[in-house]
Amino acid sequence: MHLSTKHLVPAMAAGVLALALTASASAAPNNRPQPSPSLAGMKILLSNDDSMQNARPDGSDGRGLYEVRRALCAAGADVVVMAPWQFMSGTGTSMTGSGSLTVSQRTALPAGFENDCAGAPAKGVVFGVCKSAAPCGPTTPSATPGDTVRLALRGGLAAKVGWQNGPDLVVTGANSGPNVGNVTYESGTLSAAIMAIENGKPAIALSSGFDPATFGITQRTYREFADFVPGFVADLKKRRLLTDEYAINVNYPNAVEGKDPGRPVWTEIGTETVLAVSYKPTGDTFAVGMGDCNTPGTFCRDEEKRKSDWAELNKGHITVSTATGDRSYTGNDDLRLELFLKTGH
């Protein structure tokens, strides 16, 4: 395999993370009492793609974000939220390149989350970002997930909370649904994390598994996942595995009473079509909807990875993989193409 130094450094760093997870998996069982993790003094920017509204009964528009905010502040972190004003799931890497973005502070926080960060220096302040030159309103178009992180790191946090050097870590999520297989790079949650590493900050993307009975995310899952996060961050920090070489993509399985997901497992981002999309024509118009891999004309891809995130998540494991914004191919065909361009043969 042909690997340039540019690709070798992230690959080696990801390998160290994989070994650390393997070692962690062989350590004490997950249900053994552990000391409370300390993230004292750690500045964390928290964002997502579900918005900071948390107004829907099912919590799909930001409940995961507030649960993670609660858990991180309880561990001593100084958390600031800067997230999309509206629900922006599935927007991937889309960005706003012109016009204006407005940052509006949320003063009345969702019930039950009002005082979670009261003792932190920044008080857990929550901002929503919209596409407007005026204050964000109920129908104002939202900034994208990538917009929120780029704005935060390129002046937003400095202007709003005085973080001149930015955060120590960017956390995105917890998303209302998994980001695995073919949907991973459509994810605004992961794309926001990638925007962070492209701006020199380590990042972790968090996504929650569905309840198979309802295809929604249970409150139990949001809560258990959030409680897992501080210890995981503390372990990564202790092992110096928080880096801007890659974003860490974490998926947590649907939480079930009496069933422990155990230690996180190392996975690869899979190739399998987790979500099939169909386009049904009526004249020049195509209706976009859910596809079925058994329907002719719907493109679906099989799993080609040895230990894919989707397969391991379906086994009830917490999955961990790495991603970067560099999609350069580095296999044997890459070398053949390079040689052809250099030699003409």
In angstroms, what separates the terminal alpha carbons? Answer: 19 Å
Uncertain runs with pLDDT below 50, 5 residues or more? 1-9, 25-33
Strands, count: 11
Principal-axis shape: globular
How are the strands ordered across the major sheet? 3-4-2-1-5-6-7-11-8
Strand content: 15-25%
Structure write-up:
The chain has 345 residues and is of the alpha/beta class. Helices cover 29% and strands 18% of the residues. The protein has seven helices and eleven strands. Strands 3-4-2-1-5-6-7-11-8 form a nine-stranded mixed sheet, with helices on both faces. Helix 2 packs across helix 5. The longest helix has 21 residues, at 5-25. The protein is globular. Residues 1-9 and 25-33 have low confidence and may be disordered.
Features:
globular, 11 strands, disordered N terminus, nine-stranded mixed beta sheet, 345 residues, two-stranded antiparallel sheet, alpha/beta
Compile the SSE list and pairings.
Layout: H1 5-25, E1 43-47, H2 63-74, E2 78-84, E3 101-106, E4 126-131, H3 145-161, E5 169-175, H4 188-198, E6 203-208, H5 219-238, E7 247-252, E8 265-266, E9 277-282, E10 285-290, H6 309-314, E11 319-323, H7 332-343
Parallel strand pairs: 1-2, 1-5, 2-4, 5-6, 6-7, 8-11
Antiparallel strand pairs: 3-4, 7-11, 9-10
Helix pairs in contact: 2-5, 3-4
